[in-house]
Design brief:
The chain has six helices and no strands. By secondary structure, the protein is an all-alpha fold. It folds into two domains: 57 residues, no CATH class; 95 residues, no CATH class. The longest helix is centred in the first third of the chain and has 29 residues.
Length: 193
Amino acid sequence: MKLPRPTLQHFCGEKYFQHELPIDPSSLTRWRQRIGEEGVELLRAETVEVAKSDGVVKRQSLERVTVDTTVQEKAITYPTDAKLYARGIKNLTKLARQHGIPLRQSYARKAPEALLMVNRYAKAKQMKRKRRMTKRLKTYLGRVTRDIERKIDDAPVATQTAFQQPLHQANRLLAQTRKSKNKLLSWHAPEVE
């Protein structure tokens, strides 16, 4: 394991530059394994109690706890509207093809081309053109969504249940604005905040 940079060591409160690690990194893991799951939970509970008694943490801030873990990354990219619209079109048309629902127009070629143009216009700082292409992608998604909604009315129940979640996501995406609360930021992981 590498030593932290001198600036980071200074930021962490070191008075002198350290040339070697203070402890072996595996020591903490072994200690945690030795005290077991119950010991770790007891330590966490005691930490919270001390923080509450010292007034560092308020009771109100413990009502909802957001855990920031770096154990497993999610495949989340920066959520641009255009990218979400294109992903929605792609997923809905793929699902329609799997269930044998013929679409009037799938936008299989037009949606990726429009997404490419959105990114080109953004790079070239041509924001009016970028907004126009983003609006076009939103229109494509709305057309595909409405077409599927019309055609699954008389489809089997299994098909309707298969489309329930994706159509809900598409309608949520079409309805959201810049100031909306509870935005859809990822098509494949809608729970991401």
